[in-house]
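quick one, two chains, predict together pls
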Amino acid sequence: MSDPTGRGIHHSQHSQSGRNYVMKRSRFIAASVAMIATTGLLLSGCSAGAADTGEKQLTFMFRGGEDEKAAYTTAIKAFEEANDVKVKIISTTADDYATKLKAAIAGKQIPDVFYIAQGDIQAYVNNGVVLDITEYVEGSDTLDLDNIWEYGVDSYRFDGSLVGEGAIYALPKDVGPFSFGYNKTMFEAAGIPLPDVDVPLTLEEFVNISKQLTKDLNGDGELDQWGTGLNVQWSLQSFAWSNGADFLNEDRTKVTVDTPEFAEALQWFADLSNVEGVTPSTAQAQTLDTYQRWMSGQIAFFPVGPWDVSTYAELDFDWDLIPYPAGKTGESATWVGSLGIAVGSTTEDPELSAKLVEYLSADVTAQQTLVDAGVQIPNLKDMADTWVADSTTKPANKQEFLDIVNDYGRALPANNTYNAEWYDELFTNIQPVLDGKQTAADYLKEAQPKMQAFLDDANAQAGIG
Amino acid sequence: MSTTALRTKPRRSRLHRREHQVALAFIAIPLIGFLLFTLYPLLFSVYASFTAWNGLAAPKFNGIDNYIKMWNDPYFAKAMWNTFFMMIGIPIGLVLSMALALGLNRKMRGTTFFRTVYYVPVISSIAAIAILWQWAYNGDFGLVNQVLDLFGIQGPNWLANKDTVKPALIIMATWKGLGYSMLLYLAALQSVPRYLYEAAALDGAGTWAQFRHITLPMVRPVTFFLVVTSIIGGSQIFIEVNIMTPTGGPEFSSATIVWYIWRQAFNNLHMGYASSMSIVLGLIIFVITVIQFRLNRRNQFSID
């Protein structure tokens, strides 16, 4: 074929001119209606929230699951009745929250009351997004500040340079101690004495027990039970801290991951897979795998957070909490997360907004709902005491959660800095260490300058250091 | 009639004026929408790209600092590289969907069923699909590795290995987009006049020659459309990356440019820097699209 276009072929286009007569009259009307509809939409979009019906209205923006929604509905209803005010609830999915909140802030529509991530407090205070609520919560008649975990309140204190001291900018929605659990049924079956709930295992003891419990049960030549399987991003902190290492220096201006103690902890962590072989297949530190395996009873030691309790309570085996195994210092360490509830700086009624925060953080009924749902530990100390004493619910050693909050838990390293870029950098390129292709010491030496650069940048933005 | 004659005309008819108003009203709707929701944000982000802005306080002008930072930022380069690397999936997807369309264009039983099956991923939520594939790629339990295991192949832990995470995402994206391209190709195939093939057959053209000289040129507009939209879409790949590898993958190997922009803007309080990266990304897409239109114009033909 010489002519790919096809000779002499016509593509006819049928014109449909006959249609043009229809709708002549109604065109103007149609256009006008559409016009009005559009402007209407725009206007209502702009004025949302400003509807002035004479009644006071507060907006509350949060993210969360069904349990939170249920709990807050009761707390908010109580608040509305007590204060003759309406609360407009804006709820988003967990993934969308940060984006939507930032959009609201950039659009100068800061909600009166909203969730604030623990790590955001410094930036939000520096930029005048959240309000100092110290005077309201300290002099409150609905809330006894001493009855709330110090860690929870202190996480939202900021004095202009260090988080943890100074004025209060939020109250905790919850505190989340990241504890360590073990499969009691597996220990009993193997005839291994149960670990002490008060004295942490040493790293050697931990590895030894893990080795004993890593085995092939059905004799098919493949392992089907393992000592542990931890995710580096959530468990490294504990081992680094208890080994005497830290991520930052005291005034948070220097990244200190290049110390021998830190390298030792990271190397030990990587060796669990590569040398000791007590985790499911090497190169697979994904939680997804080991989380499933833990729940099907194939893993001896695994982290447990309060948000896991409702799921783990349904498991076929018995489990309990113990302190994290401790490195050189002999002192167990782990992190406590938290989410805060803050008041937006542009609120028209700071006092009332602060009161709503108090209800959400400390209302007894709401707290009870959340605790019963097994998604968090109580914010209130006196409620926690009854909760711990309750032997009918798992875990038996609930005290461990409280000990972490009260005693040995620390904030995640990036939660006290302006942003998390420096901290994320540590984990971005860590995989070769976990795969045993690079030593921890080498890697950390490489990573420290990069992390330091990010931290310097963050501190400069925050006007510190 | 000259324009001056029009202007000096004393008064237009009522009907004319009315027509004019109607036209303006119709034009106003998309125009207002465009100005308010496209042009204004666009211009604002151009401005924001020249500022130090954390997204919380007011932006502060800082000249081309963001662009200098970008030039020296290894993660920006890596994210760009990752994004374009993943576009390898586009030609693969086109070939596969063409093949599928050819297959389903034949007269046989069950074509409707298969067309539906291939279209299901297209209408499914990307978030749901990403979670599904995350499970399928799981190193130990994943469907993908279980199937490979049947053939005695020890599959990698797809999403935790820096060499396999990009191919894993490419496979998923190709699978997801297959139905859409296939449908467009099917429509295009069915509009190719039968007699072209008959004439070609008379001229002694075999199946391959017919495909190469009739089918491919006749569906070229669709191919062009798909290439342009896939490249634009591919440059903006985000949701699946964010769900399947929320930390950007091992050694940043699955972080795409939009993922990086998003993280800088919303997690690291660098809204200004993120804006400047978006501007650069927008320009790159614009330039690529212009080049494509140029190339396409050169290849255009009509069968009049």
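The two ends of chain A are 77 Å apart (CA to CA).
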